[in-house]
Amino acid sequence: MSNVFTNRHVLSLAGNGVMAVFSVLTYSLLYRFLAPADMGNWVFFQFSFLLLDTFRTGLLQTALIKFYAGADEARQRSVAGAGWLLALLVTGGFGLLNALAWPLMSWFTDAGVLVVLRWFGLALALTLPFNVATWVLQAEQRFDRILYIRLLNQGSFIGLIFGAFLLDRINLHTVMYAFLLSALLTSVVAVAARWSRLENLPYRTGAAVREIFHFGKYSFGTYLCANLLRSSDTFIIKFMLGPAALAVYNLPQRLLEILEIPLRSGLATAMPSMSAAVNRQRQGEVTEILLKYAGFLTLLFVPVALGAGLLAEVLVGLVGGGKYAGTEAATIYRIMLVSALLFPLERFLGVTLDIIGKPQLNLVKVLLALAVNVGADIGFIQLTGSVYGATLASVATMLASTVYGYVVLSRYLPLPLGSMLPLALEEILRRGASLFHKLRPSKS
């Protein structure tokens, strides 16, 4: 039994589960404590911050993991130091940009825009050490330490929010302070524990810096466009329908976190196996892994989506509170759940394009999805005059991205989608039989 709790698959699942649970819990508290307009502006800040962080994470995360994992100690020091140098340059650039933006704040009156302009530079600086620590620990497959970091960061944030509520000081600004303080605490612990490898900064080499940068520029493009895709709804809804409508639309998105837990964990554990198959030139094995994982997750999503759809009003009430009962949130959630059945296949098609060495095609896939989403958002919102328009746009985007990914990847790998679910079901039955055999009492 102890092996279960040290298994990398279990720890990866636990880490993603913690993030999802804390995310839902945090938003549940904020939806209850904040006025709808403040809640919408907080969502706006979060998406704006994540979009800016894309410039750092997209450039460095995949590249650092790729060159750090499995390397000798000297190489790891060089890669970690080079990663830190690039991270500091990007973060410092945004800090300078933020300082230049401060004199312009008097030009704006929107509360959400003012919070972004006031705090994005400091927020990027305070989150840097624990973000680098997470990337390094992922390369080292120390998912236990990643779990500790996430627990500390999200747990302290929730504690500070609840403390502000008890002191009757809860508002958009105190939530912002809680976010910054939790980031500072987590980063201090990550550096003190030497998980961030900041001490390796002097060991950087010019060759390692160039290597990380040239690889990272491709993953950056994909990561940036993927975040623009997620953020485009936020910006369009806020400025076309207002922050209160954004709060309603964001609520069912938070509830979709229950599906993101197994999806992220599946991607994290499938990618090394797929990479190994590519390096050994076993294309059939790459296809088999893709179909098994995507099929298994799709089968898993069906009963979860059915159950969540039936309980949509209850879940909306639990997370959002009574003031969101009777809004569009429950219906939007049901539509999103149906669309989410394509999540596993769509996500694995994109990841596989990266793994087989076609990151530029994955970038085109995300660019296509972004263009479809923006155009459909504007068109459908104008047509419906409500957040239902953005929901319909997200369905159209998912369909376009999945079809394009399948058509392009089929040029390089055989993709018999008809065998996806049977292959996954066969794997489930095989593993179930193996587990039953292990648990069955032996005859003496």
Automatic annotation (TrEMBL):
Keywords recorded for this protein, A-Z: Cell membrane, Membrane, Transmembrane, Transmembrane helix
Signal sequence interval, chain numbering: none
Topology in membrane: Multi-pass membrane protein
Annotated TM spans: 12-31, 43-69, 81-104, 116-137, 149-167, 173-195, 290-312, 332-349, 361-381, 387-409
Location(s) in or outside the cell: Cell membrane
Main location: membrane
Cellular component, GO annotation: plasma membrane
The keyword Repeat is assigned to this record: no
Protein name: Lipopolysaccharide biosynthesis protein
